[in-house]
């Protein structure tokens, strides 16, 4: 950084840094706002008000929440494994933010243009599991440990077909580069030829983000709060932020892979991308408002006996179509 | 790029040393994950991004999660760490150290000979030439000259799958719903 400053801070470097800091700031602000958007929408659909006291329409609720989180006592239980306990919440924040680096937001807007972008996203989401599992283990509390177990089994199972669901898209686009994948959807968005892939990826994505129909790792009415029972203050805040960045990430990936990313008529690319992502996020919130939590064995059976065969059939069909077209 | 290579190499070696010397199994596994990530960066620097990504997805992200899962299930407490520390007595190190030192000497000998013969340490591959091997080339190699190896590996996995399926099978479900309902009755 100092070196770049001394040598005159070339124009390209300045552009990259502005790009990076802008995306990070917008992402954090948006993820924080998301908790307010979600609670207001849930309120609307469940016929109640939701947070509406702090500021106009309750917009400043998130400010009140963050002041509360930052000023709470940062307590590490004496029976916990200190090092791992502190490390765990950082992992989820780091992996989801790193995964966001490969998301192509608009032409020329995005952190890196990686040739193995899609694989990088899968790698980061598979590393994110550690956060939950280790958080549950390091708390040294039986509810946390049970939450950690559930997280490990659930996320491993759903990761298997998460990757497989995307291979159809890779076959059609012929690349792991996310910008190439968006460019390949110029004529037809992949949500039509890859409808099975979209369905399975969306389910796997919700499971990876641990959202309501799949929030068994924390299921508050049986496990207290699951893996983050012992967490307080900003360590809990990191899990919280990680979850909301995770939702934004999964929505952005669904838009990129299946709904043509920034492509769209009339409006500028950035607006299209944000609009589509917001619509997908609202659909996720609607799912949370509408669906009950399944039993744990139902969750595993559903993953292995329904979703995995569906993704394999999708791969078979896509492969046959690609071969016959070539 | 070469600095990245040596730095991640050092991290891999240091992390692996920590894996061997930790008394707590979970801590050892965490260092092993760091070591695998460092190896992934080495692959990336050497021009094999596809292998690097798979290293993270499969080894660091799936295999190691299963290891952590099993270790968590064993519920090893402080007592296990104390026992482990007793086992790591200085006398224990003699045998393994001699064997490892022999291997290290052999490795250094080969490297030195290669350099004397005028070859680069990397055997003249990617880090000097800058060639990047993409996923398509890996696929062509796997399903071309190495097809037999791929098929054998998949057979091995199938055997593992069948074994796991057999172990996980509920005996009361095997004889149909009649005996299942009877065993439910017996339990209540």
TrEMBL record, chain A:
PROSITE patterns on file: COMPLEX1_ND1_2
GO biological process, one term: aerobic respiration
Enzyme class: translocase
Membrane topology: Multi-pass membrane protein
GO terms of molecular function: NADH dehydrogenase activity; oxidoreductase activity, acting on NAD(P)H, quinone or similar compound as acceptor; quinone binding
Location(s) in or outside the cell: Cell membrane; Membrane
GO cellular component terms listed in the entry, alphabetical order: plasma membrane
Keywords on record: Cell membrane, Membrane, NAD, Quinone, Translocase, Transmembrane, Transmembrane helix, Ubiquinone
Ranges that cross the membrane: 15-37, 84-106, 118-137, 158-175, 187-207, 244-264, 270-290, 302-325
Chief location: membrane
Pfam (any one): NADHdh
EC number: 7.1.1.-
Keyword NAD set for record: yes
InterPro entries reported for this sequence: NADH_UbQ_OxRdtase_su1/FPO (IPR001694), NADH_UbQ_OxRdtase_su1_CS (IPR018086)
Catalysed transformations (reactions): a quinone + NADH + 5 H(+)(in) = a quinol + NAD(+) + 4 H(+)(out)
Stated family: Belongs to the complex I subunit 1 family.
Subunit structure: NDH-1 is composed of 14 different subunits. Subunits NuoA, H, J, K, L, M, N constitute the membrane sector of the complex.
Role this protein plays: NDH-1 shuttles electrons from NADH, via FMN and iron-sulfur (Fe-S) centers, to quinones in the respiratory chain. The immediate electron acceptor for the enzyme in this species is believed to be ubiquinone. Couples the redox reaction to proton translocation (for every two electrons transferred, four hydrogen ions are translocated across the cytoplasmic membrane), and thus conserves the redox energy in a proton gradient. This subunit may bind ubiquinone.
PANTHER family named in the record: NADH DEHYDROGENASE SUBUNIT 1 (PTHR11432), NADH-UBIQUINONE OXIDOREDUCTASE CHAIN 1 (PTHR11432:SF3)
Name of the featured protein: NADH-quinone oxidoreductase subunit H
Organism (species): Nitrosospira multiformis
UniProtKB/TrEMBL annotation, chain B:
Keyword vocabulary terms for this entry: Cell membrane, Membrane, NAD, Quinone, Translocase, Transmembrane, Transmembrane helix
Primary site of residence: membrane
GO cellular component entries: plasma membrane
Catalytic activity, reaction form: a quinone + NADH + 5 H(+)(in) = a quinol + NAD(+) + 4 H(+)(out)
Pfam families (alphabetical): Oxidored_q3 (PF00499)
EC number of the protein: 7.1.1.-
GO molecular function, one term: NADH dehydrogenase (ubiquinone) activity
Database matches in InterPro entries: NADH_UbQ/plastoQ_OxRdtase_su6, Nuo/plastoQ_OxRdtase_6_NuoJ
Organism domain of life: Bacteria
Residue intervals passing through the bilayer: 6-23, 30-50, 56-76, 88-112, 146-169
Cell membrane as UniProt keyword: yes
Keyword Cell inner membrane: no
EC class name: translocase
Family: Belongs to the complex I subunit 6 family.
Complex formation: Composed of 13 different subunits. Subunits NuoA, H, J, K, L, M, N constitute the membrane sector of the complex.
Role description: NDH-1 shuttles electrons from NADH, via FMN and iron-sulfur (Fe-S) centers, to quinones in the respiratory chain. Couples the redox reaction to proton translocation (for every two electrons transferred, four hydrogen ions are translocated across the cytoplasmic membrane), and thus conserves the redox energy in a proton gradient.
Name assigned to this protein: NADH-quinone oxidoreductase subunit J
Species name: Nitrosospira multiformis
């Amino acid at each position: 950084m100092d070196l770049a400053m001394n040598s005159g801070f070339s124009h390209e470097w300045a552009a990259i840094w502005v790009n990076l800091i802008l995306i990070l700031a917008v992402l954090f602000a948006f993820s924080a706002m998301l908790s307010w958007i979600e609670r207001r929408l849930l309120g609307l659909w469940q016929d109640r008000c939701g947070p509406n006291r702090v500021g106009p329409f309750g917009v400043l609720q998130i400010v009140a929440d963050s002041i509360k989180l930052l000023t709470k006592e940062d307590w590490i239980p004496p029976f916990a494994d200190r090092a791992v306990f502190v490390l765990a919440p950082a992992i989820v924040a780091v992996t989801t933010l790193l995964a966001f680096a490969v998301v192509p937001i608009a032409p020329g807007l995005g952190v890196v243009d990686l040739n193995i972008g899609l694989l990088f996203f899968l790698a980061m989401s598979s590393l994110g599991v550690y956060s939950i599992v280790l958080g549950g283990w390091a708390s040294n509390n039986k509810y946390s440990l049970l939450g950690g177990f559930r997280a490990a089994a659930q996320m491993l199972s759903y990761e298997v077909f998460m990757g497989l669901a995307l291979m159809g898209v890779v076959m059609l686009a012929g690349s792991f580069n996310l910008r190439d994948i968006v460019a390949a959807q110029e004529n037809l968005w992949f949500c039509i030829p890859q409808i099975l892939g979209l369905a399975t990826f969306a389910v796997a994505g919700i499971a990876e983000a641990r959202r309501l129909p799949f929030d068994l790792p924390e299921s508050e009415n049986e496990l207290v709060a699951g893996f983050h029972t012992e967490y307080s203050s900003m360590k809990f805040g990191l899990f919280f932020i990680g979850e909301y960045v995770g939702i934004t990430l999964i929505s952005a990936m669904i838009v990129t892979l299946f709904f043509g990313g920034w492509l769209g008529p009339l409006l500028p690319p950035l607006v299209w991308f944000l609009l589509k992502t917001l619509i997908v996020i609202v659909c996720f919130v609607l799912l949370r408002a509408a669906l009950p939590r399944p039993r744990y064995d139902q969750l595993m059976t559903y993953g292995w006996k329904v979703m995995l065969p569906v993704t394999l059939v999708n791969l078979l069909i896509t492969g046959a179509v690609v071969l016959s077209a070539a | 790029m070469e600095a990245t290579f040596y730095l991640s190499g050092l991290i891999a070696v240091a992390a692996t040393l920590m894996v061997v010397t930790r008394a707590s199994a979970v801590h050892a596994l965490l260092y092993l994950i760091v070591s695998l990530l460092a190896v992934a960066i080495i692959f990336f620097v050497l021009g094999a991004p596809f292998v690097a990504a798979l290293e993270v997805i499969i080894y660091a992200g799936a295999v190691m999660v299963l290891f952590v899962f099993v270790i968590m299930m064993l519920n090893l407490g402080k007592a296990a760490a104390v026992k482990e520390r007793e086992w790591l007595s200085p006398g224990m190190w003699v045998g393994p150290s001699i064997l490892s030192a022999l291997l290290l000497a052999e490795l250094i000998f080969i490297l030195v000979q290669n350099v004397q013969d005028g070859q680069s340490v990397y055997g003249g591959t990617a880090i000097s030439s800058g060639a990047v091997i993409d996923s398509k080339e890996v696929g062509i190699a796997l399903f071309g000259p190495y097809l037999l190896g791929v098929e054998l590996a998949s057979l091995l996995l199938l055997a593992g799958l069948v074994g796991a399926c057999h172990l996980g099978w509920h005996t009361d479900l095997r004889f149909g719903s009649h005996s299942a309902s009877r065993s439910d009755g017996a339990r209540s």
